[in-house]
Amino acid sequence: MIEPVEFIGPKTFLRVVGSNRVYGGEWWFDESLLQRIGQTYSRVFFGREKKEVIRTALRDVLALAATWNKMTEVWALKVPPAEALHGYQSRATPQALFCGLPISPVNRMLTGRATQIFFPVKNPLWVEQYGSLA
Question: Which residue has the higher pLDDT, 4 or 23?
Fold first, then answer.
């Protein structure tokens, strides 16, 4: 179910992208999701693999198919204090890891469930690079 929402800043939303458009009207998620995933793995020792583990966890809960999102960068939409931003939120629905291929051990289903927000209009001056998952 998609429902209209209004957010009053300060608030930060994130978007993971590969070669996707950052400034388009696509789906974003609350910064707290990435923080919770990071905390989940904070007590486990990782070297270079930590970004891959976080990318895999994000891909699963956001149901972002590898076919259309390489997830190499994280961008932030930072709503300034007292500013309003209108959008539509919904939970991500399950999708295959690779679109158009049968489900198999290699092409598993991504679970979804994370809340994502679609912002049809946003101030591009509020968008900045947040980090890297590469």
Answer: 4
